[in-house]
Structure formats: structure tokens, C-alpha cells
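Minimal example, chain plus 6-O-phosphono-beta-D-fructofuranose.
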Amino acid sequence: MDANTPAVEAAWSALQAQAKADAASHIAARYDTEPDRLQRLTLEAAGLFLDLSKHAWSREGFEAALALARAGDVEGHRARLFAGEIVNRTERRPALHMALRAPDGADFKAEGKPVSPEVEATRAQMREFAEGVRAGRIAGATGLRFRTVVHIGIGGSDLGPKLVWEALKPLEPAIQLRFVANVDGAEIAAALAGLDPAETLVIVVSKSFTTEETLVNGNAARAWLAAKLGEDGANQHLAAVSANVEGAARFGVAPDRLFAFWDWVGGRYSLWSAVGLSTAIGLGWEVFAQLLAGGAAMDDHFRTAPLARNAPALLGLAHLFGRNGLARPIRAVVPYARRLALLPAFLQQLEMESNGKQVGEAGEPLIRGSAAAVFGDAGTTGQHAFFQMLHQGTDVIPVDIVAVANGDEGPPDHQARLLANAIAQAEALMIGHANPQEPWRNFPGDRPTSFILLDRVTPAPLGALIALYEHKVFVEGVLWGIDSFDQWGVELGKTLAKQVLPELQGGAAGKHDPSTTALIAKLKR
Ligand code: F6P
């Protein structure tokens, strides 16, 4: 319990005191008083460039944050993560997503048991299937090639693959991907609209294979296939990805269409596993392999770089300086790349499901705030929606700006305009603009940004970017002393929905609070 030791508490107190002092002076002025500021707070990692100099931390604030990371033994926790020890204590599991993206020949172990051979075997199975579908060797029941993959899954079984597809998909894909997550019938209706079952492959993705939304949508898709192709024909159009192989087999998926992963892969860390099968089909194996390589490059950096030059650690500390040092419970994420528009949605699950916790690992109540709420949208569209509040709202909301150096799509001058906006917004948020005569035109400034630059939205930098955030979430979780890999908070609502459903469908009324009882009565059908 490193997070609760007197040394850690002292480091927290020092950080909070220093943050308070730092908030009393302007960020922009620090470049004069700290000549090494830019050099100290910018770094390159796995092909990404980070500028963390526009945060409120002074040199002393930065040192206090590093001292906290040392006191909290981030390096020791990191070693235990990579060693495959149990880091998800409430579910008694390691968290070894790094094993999924390591090159062939790696030697990851989960609680001492080698896992790399089975990772490689599944990767080979995925590759064969993806290449077979792309080449038309694996075709539908009537002999037609698959032209669309319908990916059915929710949460971690949806958001990562969808982000990757939207980021990397060709303008005119040979094979289209459509995603179905919500149990709202409108979603599957829209996904299946206009498709020919004879040319459609359905992949049902669920770690547990018990998730209501996914099973309901999976059954609906199977019925849609069978209506045209018959039950046997439908089977040739179905594949499943799960850590619950028996559950997926019960669903009726043929063994050679079943892709396994393991309980040491957290749902929101699973896009690197067979959960990414649909993206491997839609984008091609080489692209998927490069995505993995980008993630692995960030793993190498995170595992080996000293804390003071470690991108995930420093990004985590910068965020934590705002969250806990300056009590800022919201953060915006603004990718200046339409292709990365789903990054905020992906990070909402990664950050808020991982670190939105109220107790420490021993069940003790936390004495300081954990995950910040994350929201955002692509720049520049976000500028015309919520940036007003970022510049002039009563609360300071730190912003992650993710920009792309060499976007080469579309007419030639668009990219420069896009970049100009990204850079200018970060500058404006920091320097502000005093206007005492017209207070409504006053920009207070001192609103921090993390500036993250990718060379291009190509597979390797994207993999590195996602892994950067995964590891920064880990670093924060270590320092808050929480289990970043469980998600008990999603259970109660699921349980109650199971009780409410039969009541809505005409069953006997259950025992509820008056508001809930009245809603059920109103909506009963
Ligand atoms: O939202 C809760 C959750 O358990 C997530 O952690 C997970 O990513 C999602 O549901 C889907 O779970 P599964 O892959 O088991 O269907």
C-alpha cells in the first residue's frame, strides 16, 4: 500500500502546498525565470512529441510531483505490472495488455505462467482469418465475398476498435465496418440497413459473453442472417471473440470462428487482442501489426525511461497536479484531427472506468479526488461549442490538445489552418488577454494544456498514443492507491435493470422508491 505511507502523505502535502504557491503566478512568466523549462518539459517518446510546459507547475512544482512519483514507488509498481503480478487485486488478476502487442518471441508471464506463446498462436489465427476474408478465400454461405463486417460489442469491446477504424480507415474501404453497441434497436437497425446478409460477416465481441446488450444484438443479427441464409448458412457468417470460450460456443459459433483472449486483458485495454479482429480485417494485417508495434514502442519507453523523462509518467503527473494540486475535476480532450474525433469517447471509458473510484485498494475511503471527468470533441468544431467555457468559464478546465504534424488529406492549405488553430488555442488559453474596460472581453489565461503531437495519423503513432494514455492512467491509479483495472461501479445499475425489465413487460410490480414505481407504471407496456 505505497499510496498510504507517511512518506507518500508527506509528498502529497508538499505537492499541494507547492501547487497553491504556483497558482499565484503566471505560467507564461516561468519561461523567463526557468531557462530550461522548455527543454525539461518537452520530450519525445515512441514517435510522439509532448509539451507539458504550459501547465501551472513551476520547477519546484514539477520536482514535488516527481518526488510524489518516487515516494509512491511508481517504478516498483511498473515493474510488477510488466512482470504479470496481480495488479487488479479485487479480481485477483494481472493486467498484461502489453503482452498482446509485444513482438513474436517475447516472454510475458501472468503470475509466472508464460502467456506469449498463446498470444502468438491467437495472433496467427487472427491473421489467417483476416487475410482470408480480405482475399475472398473465406467467403459467405452463397460464395459471395464479405463486403461488410458488423462488429457487435460494447464498452471496451467497442470503443477501441471503433477509434482505430475511424482513425485509419481508407476513404473508400474494400470492406466496410459497422459497429453496434447500444441495446437501442435503432442502432442495430441502422447498422444492418441496406446490407445484404450474403455479403455480411458478423463478429460478436464480448470478454464475458454475458453482456446483455451484446447478446441481444448478437441474437438479432443472427436472426437477420438466418432469415435469408438459413441457420446453417448464418453460422458461416458469424465469428466471436471472447475470454469465455464456452459462452461463445453456446451462442453457436463454430470453433474455428472463435477467437480467444484472457482474463488478464482488461476490457478497456483489449483493442490489441482478438477484439481488434474486425479492424484487422478492415484495415489489413500489416496496419494492425504496425498499430501493435506503436503500442509496444510506448511500452518499451514507459518501462525503461527514467521518471523525469517518461512520457506516460509526466503526463499523469501533469494531470494529477491539476486534479489534486489545484482541485480541477474536469479535463477536456481536443484532437485536432477529425480522424481522432472518437479519442474523447475512448478516454472516457479508459480514464473514468479505470480511475473513477472512491476507495483505495484495501477498501479504505480515498481522502483525495480520483479521476477527472473527461469530455471533448475534435478541433476546430469544439472551438465553436465549448471553448467559450474553456477560455472564460468560472472553472479552470485543463485541456489535452492532440495535433498532427503532417495531415496530408484534402486540399493543401487545410492542414496549416488546422495546426494554426491548435497552436493558437494553447497559446490563448495560457497567455489570456486583459481587458478591464470590457470585462466580457477579458481572458484570464493561465489555463493549462498538454500538447501532444503525432507525425501522422498512421498506425504506429496511433498505437503509441493509446498506450501513452493507458500507462498514464496506470501511473495516476498507483498514486491514488486504487485498483485501476476493476469496474464494480457498473454492476448495480445492470442488476436493477434485470428487475425492472419484467415489470415493464407486464410482470408483477416490484419494490421500488416512489419515483421509480411511478416511472415503471407510466412506461409499462
Ligand atoms: O461497462 C462495463 C463493462 O464490463 C466494461 O468494462 C466492458 O468493456 C464492457 O462492459 C463490455 O464487457 P464485455 O466485453 O464482457 O461484453
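Residues 65 and 143 are 61 Å apart (CA to CA). DSSP finds 20 helices and 13 strands in the chain.
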